[in-house]
Amino acid sequence: MELGWSVLVDNKIRFGSHPSRPLGACGDPVTNRRFRKAYLAGEYVLLFFGLASIYAVLFRGTSPIPFLLVLGLAVVVYLLRSSGFDRASLWRPGTLWSQARSIAALWCLAAVCLSATVAFLRPGLLFAFPREDPLIWALVMVLYPLLSVYPQELIFRGFVFHRYATVFGEGARMVAASAVAFGFVHIAFGSWISVAMTIVGGWIFASRYRRTRSLFTVSVEHALYGMLVFTVGLGQYFYHGAAGA
Question: Where's the CAAX prenyl protease 2/Lysostaphin resistance protein A-like domain (predicted)?
Fold first, then answer.
């Protein structure tokens, strides 16, 4: 009000433009940043926990693929229209080669651990999918990366890292936020096993994306783990028919 009154008494001063005075409360950049940060934090919770819970209740038992494809397309449009987004991160395949050894080593360790766990706890499931239904297994190996993996990476890495950088920064907190959101949405499959495993996987993928800024590289890694899970006998926890398993 004081600044507004000065406009009336001194035509040389414009409202909100005097260099020696702070902006009014509504235009305070610090206040605006805090408001935006709070807004984005609420949006993050609503999208990845609120709406995910609603989906789990209303659409449990239905395939998430159509939703993933629509959301993935919407995310691409949003990212391409967003200022400051590095469009090269949508692909950037060159980083795969520098990460290949690390990806392979971690994947081999996971393969041994998961195979041993299934063999010990549920031996009848080990390699049951490729053994009993090899054609469907082969089809899943081909279509899963295209229809499921890349859309997920668009959402949980590309979108989350860009949209919520104000809230979580670009370090470990962002990696954790991406991993937890990625894991929680798997509640739709009705199993704590799928949620727990995907939180771990989400941490791996988010850490990789943080280092490479390559959705191509992280999608390759994600696909390798997904194919491993389906192959060793844990796929029942990661498809819509597993609800309630």
Answer: 137-225
